Amino acid sequence: MKKISIKHFHLLIIGVVSFFLIFSLHFFGAFSAIESKMYDLRFKIRGPLIGWDSNFSRSKIPEDFVDLNKNGIWDNDEEYIDIGNQTWNTNEVYQDVNNNGIWDLNEPFEDKGNNFRDSGQDVILIEIDDESYRLIPEGYPYTRGRVWSSIVRNLTLAGAKTIVFDIMFDSPDHTTQILENTINSDCKDCSYIDADIEFSNAISYAKSNNTDVILSAKVAYNPNRIPAYYFVEPYSVLLESTPPIGLIDQESDLVDNVTRRYPIFYKLPTDSKIYLSLAVQSVLSYKRMYDYKIKQDLDKGIFQVGDFNIPTYGNEASFLLNYLGPTSSSFQTFDKFSLSNVLDTYQYDLSNVEEDDDWMDKYINKKNPLYKFFGDKNPFKNKIVIIGSSLPEDNDFVSTPYFNYHNSEYPMPGLEVHANAIQQLLDSNFIHVPSSTLSLTKDSFLSHCLLIILFIFLTILLSNVKSMGISILLTTLSIIGWFSFSIGIFINDHLWMFKYVINLFSNIDIQYNYPVSNESILLPVFFPIASIILTFGINLSYKFLNEQKDKKFLKETFGKYVSPKLIDDMYKNKKLPELGGESGIRTAFFSDLQAFSTISEQLTSKELVDLLNEFLSSQTEIILSHKGTLDKYEGDAILAFFGAPVYFKDHPKAALDTAVYCQKNLSKLNKKWQSEGDKWPEIVHSMKMRIGINSGEMVTGNMGSKHHMNYTMMGDVVNIAARLESAAKQYGILFHTTEDTLLDAGLENYCWRYIDRVQFVGKTVWHQTVEIIDFKDSASSNNTKLVDFFNKGMELFYQQKWDEAIEIFYKSAELEQNSEEEDINPSRIFIERAYEFKRFPPRRGWRGAFVLEHK
User: Fold this and answer.
1) Which of 164, 363, 584, 796 is the most exposed place for a label (fewest CB within 10 A)?
2) H or E segment to which residue 616 belongs
3) How far apart are CA 696 and CA 643, in angstroms?
4) Phi and psi dihedrals of 366, rounded to 5?
């Protein structure tokens, strides 16, 4: 059986840790608030499905179609008339008559269709609004006699199919009660009409004319009552007319108190009876479904009333509200009328005579002169009319996904929530949730766990791409991709984000697609994105900690002789030194103190150690700061190389620069030691160092045994570098290198001169050597003149113009630093050679090579 690798084991651990962290956060609801906001965001991106702000131009009246198969319903292949909605929509062209940049009510516009057959809107709102409060000359709450019985009769005459009251009538009519409490029992002429009986009669009248009136009930809770939960139903007198009853209780999310679901039914803890919600009961009455069986299929998540199926949210007795839009008062989502209008007939006078125009008569009274114009345009005929309050003082408002819309707040009256639920049920336009719920429940457990595992696996793959930049890019794209997909599948437009960006940065207004019936699919948005972010963060943290651990190991192992920058490069390239060597072009560095034996004779052992520690420490810092690698110390000598263990292209220049800075550093140390007075002997104050450098192919690596290794360099190039350092003494110079190394480093960077064509002992090939005196930009005028004279002399020397060469070398000799008679310097050496060749000319074919007799 194949063993799992350490890397794969670590990835497995990261995956397991990520899963338990994400699962725990999800289980305890850490993502619930943001997931709820993502739910609302879908509606704001989609926009209203109907009303003036809708891009979809949905018609509120049913569009005619050719019923080819005579089944009474429109089928996808049947022709229809796309009539528009008689309302201006934001995507429709209009004539800006007053040039104010917005569409005004009387301005003409192009009323185009939406390329889909609309079945119309079946719900009408009648609101107790500020106009009603101002114009109805009744005490509030309104009496059931003069007001509500009149409303029922007027709507019945208008042909309303179902009248729904989002108002509780659970106690006797207050006006009647006042009369009963104040009239003396001995009064003989104190007759009155019981408003509850009058209202009950109106309900019976409606029923006899094929109009159902639905009254509201609710579930109440009182901890001091037994049982604590109980059913609050309409007043007993009203029940004598046997009206259908629906519960007005609504659900809001505990996270942010936003109403996103609508109840289907309720059961009391002490009662097995099912109480249907107001919307469900309204739809059943509208469809005239009185004899039905109720069945709940938990496995399929469906609540069934007869042949009417309602997909539930998880195993809850509720469904997700697919809101058609924001409040109708601002966005015309539903047709809305004031209660005062419906009440206003020739038999009822409003408080303001000038506004009392018998508005309702033009729809229900054939004697009204306007009836012939409006009678066939009756907005209430065959509709569900829901009646409720939009007065702020009644506090019947809820927050919906459209609460914050277009930078304003739009609380929705409770009756409009019922209206949305009723229309949704009639259209069978439900939101489908493949994972059953957005929160973690027993129904969504498996699907959510699989989603978490999928995104963890994907993120681990993306976060372990070699390039961190590409890894971050791919992870970011996966986040954006899921966000776009999960929103797009709800609004039925997977290109919505692309369209949004185009619209944002251009004058082009590209419209989104929109979901028709049953096309909205709800997928979780945030916890999959959180899975990506957290997994990437955990993996990144692990890699960071592991990197620090590896870097610590490298620094502890190589930090004393490899620069920190090189250690970082070694870790970045995952190239750790191993037993064995690697061949490549590198640069070798050798340095040695001049006359160190003499110096050591004048110092005690402790003084010698202190001196060497100070010298070697400061010089090594310079080597490491230029990405050099310390090979070893041999007494006062420093051996180093450049270009390994991590190769870098300009290693020859780094080596030459290091050498120049080391020479300058020694000058500073000399001054420091001199300033310390008698602590050091005179010879320490003028201590000098020779350096030899050579570039070429060499072997670098850990040499030795498995138990003891030394990271070092080997090869002929290394030997020549050592010879250059020792040969510097024979020429009286301090920095000796080859012309090839100088060319690789850039000869324009330095003040330098040719030294010799050297053939070392035991070698058959000669090398052109040079001396580096200083950086070109910081070289003194003396050194510049010295180089010019000496290099000119060398040119004449190789041309065998001995006298001219001698003359020039004498000029350069005057500029040499080692100018005392006992000192050796290159100018004197070549003066002597020129005199010797003048007496004994070189053999034919002479190239100027000189064999050093000593190593």
Assistant:
1) 584
2) helix 605-625
3) 11
4) -65, -20
The DSSP result for 389-402, as a single string, is E--GGGT-EEB-TT
Strands (E), 657-805: 689-704, 709-714, 735-738, 750-759, 767-775
Answer whether the bond into residue 141 is a cis peptide, omega within 30°: yes
Distance, in Å, from the CA atom of 762 to the CA atom of 805, rounded to the nearest integer, reads 30
| Helix (H) or strand (E) segment spanning residue 9 | helix 6-27
DSSP state of 226: S
Quick one: 121 exposed, middle or buried, by C-beta within 10 A (0-12, 13-18, 19+)?
Answer: buried
pLDDT tens track for 682-737: 999 999 999 999 999 999 987 776 666 678 899 999 999 999 999 999 999 999 99
SS (H, E, C) 551-607: HHHHHHHHCCCECHHHHHHHHHCCCCCCEEEEEEEEEEEEEEECCHHHHHHCCCHHH
Instruction: State the average pLDDT over residues 603-609.
Output: 91
Nearest-angstrom CA–CA distance, 294 and 304: 6
- The verdict on pTM exceeding 0.85 is no
Residue 276 near residue 422, CB atoms below 8 Å: no
Q: Per the structure block, which two tokens stand in for 517?
A: 């019936």
Q: What is the pLDDT of residues 292-327, one digit of tens each?
A: 888 887 777 788 887 778 889 988 889 999 999 999
Distance of alpha carbon 270 from the chain centroid = 49
Distance of CA 306 to the CA centre of its chain: 47
Query: At 186, is the pLDDT very low, low, confident or very high (cuts 50, 70, 90)?
Result: low
Domain ranges in the chain with CATH number 3.30.70.1230:
588-745
Three-class SS state of 433: coil
CA dist 465 and 475 (Å) reads 10
Task: Give the pLDDT of residue 302.
Answer: 82
Other beta carbons within 10 Å of 558: 20
Q: How many residues does the chain have?
A: 855
Q: What is the DSSP string of 505-561?
A: TSS--PPPP---TT-EE----HHHHHHHHHHHHHHHHHHHHHHHHHHHHHHHHHTTT
pLDDT digits (tens, 9 = 90+) for 98-133: 888 888 777 887 878 777 777 789 999 999 999 999
- The answer to whether 334 and 419 have CB atoms below 8 angstroms apart is yes
Residue type, 677: G
Taking residues 194-215, report their average pLDDT. Answer: 96
The position carrying tokens 């004498």 is: 810
Report residue 1's pLDDT band, with 50, 70 and 90 as the boundaries.
very low
Bridge partners (DSSP) of residue 714 are 699
- The phi, psi pair for 613, rounded to 5°, reads -60, -45
Report d(CA 212, CA 203) in Å as an integer.
Answer: 8
Please tell me the CATH code under which domain 588-745 is placed. Answer: 3.30.70.1230
Question: Strand pairing partners for 263?
Answer: 318
Q: How far apart are CA 644 and CA 713, in angstroms?
A: 9
List the structure tokens of 669: 């140390």
Those residues with Cβ within 8 angstroms of residue 477's Cβ, 6 or more apart along the chain or in another chain: none
Written as one letter, the residue type at 441 is T
Mean pLDDT of 754-770: 90
Side-chain-facing half-sphere of 510: CA atoms under 13 Å: 14
According to DSSP, residue 80 is labeled B
**Number of helices (H), then strands (E), in the chain:** 27, 29
Give yes or no for a cis peptide into 528 (omega within 30° of 0): no
